[in-house]
């Protein structure tokens, strides 16, 4: 059906890649991100036809528009989807909850996967995809053959993303995963989520240093040509196209759930998304372009507000004030503490292509120059016509830590049965509530807000305890903590320690562990 190929946002001169090449490479050699040659439109009647599909079936329908059957035959893609979403605790995979029926506020719960965070939706699929591609390459080779294709995934985490990658890749054949994290700087729960995974192919490295040290080491490992060619280093970071693709499904799925819930399709669906690297909400943009009736996509940022500033000014700047040094603020929603939003480049490409360029090549060179300015000057500005186009797709709200905490509290107090938000989801709900109030003043009607809930509150105990500790009858232990997390303290753990931010030491550990895996 589909004959999709992929090319880089920074040039289209290179030959168009297959889906597999785009996924395995992750980042294009010119520094750009891979995008599909065309955004497919859903067929006439598809919305109705799809509305009763299960999550996995729906994922298959959507993904098959982006992956050529020459690459992954339908039956194989179907089983990949089925397998990927069978690990979720909720029957609906990503269920929708009514927060306030009167004001039309709904929560899309994306945290029912193995690590209790939204990244599972994509990484469960990516892990199976990696394994699928490798098994195909290795077909017919002996189990212990020296020429088997393998991938060594190396990543750094400040806490939240490492476990989703680990659970996506655990026990996958011919894949090894190494996750670096700064010693003593991830929460005990986050550390336990990673170190209690005992599979032979999973390795966590506690590194004496900061998160930046971990990231720098990972970057250097990627830049190490010799190491790379020997160990086939791979990444599963948020710019990987497969992650965006997998996230498109829940926009459709939640729209169908909401329509059924309301018994009508006569409403304006607005999605509000707690945003960091712009991967989650970008999937909403693709969903809309494909034909989902989306009335609005609202970016909700914390104090790290580069996107909010862009939408309001047309200037994409690392610093909040011209000339000042850029800073990442540590907020209550750490998974959104970013300086620049890596996936925003994909949306910028569409803006350039549709408003300034007449060919893909031209759009690629505009993008390359914007990104080069961002790198050298820390900023670039887009023309008015581009900003206007951006505003037609996205609006934004910036939420302070005070508002985040107050929202966790007010939702807990006002909603029956009691609902406990994690701080990331609270950023989205705070933005939604702000919009609902504005709509009500302006007399806008029939709007339904779907606020994306990206993590289970148990993952961010400090923020939740701070917000709710004083509430009568509240107990983190019994109201929030899942049994699985309570069991961590008695579980066997496995992890490695490197006593300095030293790339050679980390490489030595990786080499040693890879050798042990083969025994
Ligand atoms: C990663 C993450 C986000 C941000 O998602 P992006 O795709 O980076 O915008 C929000 N909340 C949680 C809990 C996350 O882990």
TrEMBL record:
InterPro entries: Ser/Thr_deHydtase_PyrdxlP-BS, Thr_synth_N, Thr_synth_N_sf, Thr_synthase-like, Threonine_Synthase, TrpB-like_PALP_sf. The modification N6-(pyridoxal phosphate)lysine is found at residue 119. PROSITE patterns: DEHYDRATASE_SER_THR (PS00165). It comes from the Eukaryota. Transmembrane segments: none annotated. Residues 5-85 form the Threonine synthase N-terminal domain. Keywords: Amino-acid biosynthesis, Lyase, Pyridoxal phosphate, Threonine biosynthesis. GO terms for molecular function: pyridoxal phosphate binding; threonine synthase activity. Pfam families: THR4_C (PF24857), Thr_synth_N (PF14821). Signal peptide: none annotated. It is an enzyme of class 4 (lyase). It catalyses: O-phospho-L-homoserine + H2O = L-threonine + phosphate. GO terms for biological process: threonine biosynthetic process. Pathway: Amino-acid biosynthesis; L-threonine biosynthesis; L-threonine from L-aspartate: step 5/5. Its EC number is 4.2.3.1. Its cofactor is pyridoxal 5'-phosphate. Gene3D superfamilies: 3.40.50.1100, Threonine synthase, N-terminal domain (3.90.1380.10). Belongs to the threonine synthase family. Catalyzes the gamma-elimination of phosphate from L-phosphohomoserine and the beta-addition of water to produce L-threonine. This is Threonine synthase. The lineage of its organism: Eukaryota, Fungi, Dikarya, Ascomycota, Saccharomycotina.
């Amino acid at each position: 059906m589909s004959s999709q190929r992929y090319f880089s946002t920074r040039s289209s001169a290179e030959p168009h890649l297959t889906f597999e090449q785009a996924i395995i490479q992750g980042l294009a050699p010119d520094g750009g991100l891979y995008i599909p040659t065309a955004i497919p439109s859903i067929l006439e009647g598809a919305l109705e036809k799809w509305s009763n599909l299960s999550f996995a079936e729906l994922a298959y329908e959507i993904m098959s528009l982006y992956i050529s059957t020459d690459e992954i035959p339908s039956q194989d893609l179907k089983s990949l989807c089925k397998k990927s979403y069978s690990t979720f605790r909720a029957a609906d995979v990503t269920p929708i909850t009514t927060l306030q029926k009167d004001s039309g506020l709904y929560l899309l719960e994306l945290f029912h996967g193995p690590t209790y965070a939204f990244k599972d939706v994509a990484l469960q699929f990516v892990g199976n995809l990696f394994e699928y591609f490798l098994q195909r390459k290795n077909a017919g080779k002996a189990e212990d053959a020296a020429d088997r294709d393998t991938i060594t995934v190396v990543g750094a985490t400040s806490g939240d993303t490492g476990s989703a990658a680990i659970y996506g890749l655990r026990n996958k054949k011919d894949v090894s995963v190494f996750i670096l994290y700064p010693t003593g700087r991830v929460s005990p729960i986050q550390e336990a989520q990673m170190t209690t995974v005992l599979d032979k192919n999973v390795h966590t490295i506690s590194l004496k240093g900061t998160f930046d040290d971990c990231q720098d080491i990972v970057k250097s490992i990627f830049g190490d040509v010799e190491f790379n060619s020997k160990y086939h280093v791979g990444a599963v970071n948020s710019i990987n196209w497969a992650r965006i693709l997998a996230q498109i499904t829940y926009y459709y799925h939640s729209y169908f759930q909401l329509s059924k819930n309301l018994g009508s399709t006569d409403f304006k669906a607005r999605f509000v998304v707690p945003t960091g690297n712009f991967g989650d909400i970008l999937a909403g943009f693709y969903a809309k372009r494909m034909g989902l009736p989306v009335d609005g996509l609202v970016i909700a940022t914390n104090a790290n507000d580069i996107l909010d500033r862009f939408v309001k000014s047309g200037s994409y700047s690392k610093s909040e004030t011209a000339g000042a040094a850029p800073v990442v603020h540590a907020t209550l929603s750490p998974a959104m503490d970013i300086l620049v939003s890596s996936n925003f480049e994909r949306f910028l490409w569409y803006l350039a292509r549709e408003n300034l360029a007449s060919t893909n090549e031209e759009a690629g060179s505009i993008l390359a120059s914007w990104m080069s300015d961002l790198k050298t000057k820390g900023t670039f500005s887009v023309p008015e016509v581009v900003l206007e186009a951006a505003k037609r797709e996205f609006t934004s709200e910036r939420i302070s830590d005070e508002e985040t905490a107050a929202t966790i509290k007010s939702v807990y107090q006002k909603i029956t049965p009691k609902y406990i938000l994690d701080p990331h989801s609270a950023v989205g709900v705070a933005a939604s509530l702000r919009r609902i109030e504005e709509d009500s003043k302006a007399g806008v009607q029939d709007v339904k807000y779907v606020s994306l809930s990206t993590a289970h509150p148990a993952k961010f105990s400090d923020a939740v305890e701070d917000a709710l500790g004083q509430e009568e009858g509240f107990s983190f232990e019994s109201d929030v903590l899942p049994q699985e997390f309570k069991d961590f303290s008695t579980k066997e753990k496995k992890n490695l320690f490197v006593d300095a931010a030293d790339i050679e030491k980390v490489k030595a550990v990786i080499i040693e562990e890879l050798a042990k895996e083969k025994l």
